[in-house]
Automatic annotation (TrEMBL):
Keywords: DNA-binding, Transcription, Transcription regulation. Residues 2-69 form the HTH gntR-type domain. PROSITE patterns: HTH_GNTR (PS50949). It comes from Bordetella genomosp. 9. InterPro entries: GntR_C, TF_FadR/GntR_C, Tscrpt_reg_HTH_GntR, WH-like_DNA-bd_sf, WH_DNA-bd_sf. SUPFAM superfamilies: GntR ligand-binding domain-like, Winged helix' DNA-binding domain. One of its GO terms (molecular function) is DNA-binding transcription factor activity. Signal peptide: none annotated. This is GntR family transcriptional regulator.
């Protein structure tokens, strides 16, 4: 049952993050269990994990729905990231392995390639490289507490879909921050990595809020 629950959780999480389930969509146990070919018990456990992650909400009498995002939800996520992720970057710079550094460099190359290629797939490819970059820093920090707190925030649907709002110049700016962060990590300069990450997240927050105010999100 544990493996069934994990599979259901990962599948539902992927669909939510990919935008296949829109905010407010009800996640019903029985149809999902039938679709996955499993009992309702592991589906119920998977839905409970989604609620704990903030990807879904459970309301008495209304069941479980995909979470919608208010201005406060977005602000809360970014304020938490601004307080924790710079420290994560600092630890990553001080503790990183050669393999982690190589992965950061590779993700930068992939991001640069996606931006240069442009086209309809640019946002998704850039976001994928961005996700690898941030999760690599998170793992390189060596802090299980930070990993458990930040992993879900980095994967929030509102953050992932935000790449579809950015211009090529804005994506290039984000890449420049990643490249500067990589240099700080390479030099094991924790203080510099901390400050660059703080700037990076502040600019990301500003771009997203500006786009929402313009009615594009």
């Amino acid at each position: 049952m544990a493996s069934d629950s994990h599979l259901a959780y990962e599948t539902l999480k992927h669909r939510i993050l990919a935008g296949q389930y829109k905010p407010g969509t009800q996640l019903k146990e029985e149809p999902l269990a039938d679709a996955f070919g499993i009992s309702r018990t592991p589906v119920r456990a998977a839905l409970r994990r989604l609620v704990e992650d903030g990807l879904a909400v459970a309301e008495s009498g209304r069941g479980v729905h995909v979470a919608a995002w208010t201005e406060w939800d977005i602000e809360e996520v970014f304020q938490l990231r601004l307080r924790l992720e710079p420290f994560c970057a600092q630890l990553a710079a001080e503790r990183r392995s050669d393999d982690a550094l190589a992965t950061l460099m590779q993700s930068n190359e992939q991001m640069a390639k996606a931006i240069k290629a442009g086209g309809a797939g640019m946002a998704d490819a850039t976001q994928a490289a961005n996700r690898v970059f941030h999760h690599t820093l998170l793992e390189a920090s060596g802090s299980h507490r930070l990993q458990s707190i930040l992993a879900t925030m980095i994967d929030m649907p509102i953050v992932i879909r935000s790449f579809h709002l950015y211009s090529r110049d804005e994506m290039q700016q984000s890449l420049s921050h990643h490249q500067d962060l990589t240099l700080a990590v390479q030099d094991r300069d924790g203080a510099l990595a901390h400050d660059i990450m703080q700037l990076h997240l502040s600019m990301t927050r500003r771009r997203l809020m500006k786009a929402r105010a313009a009615g594009t999100q």
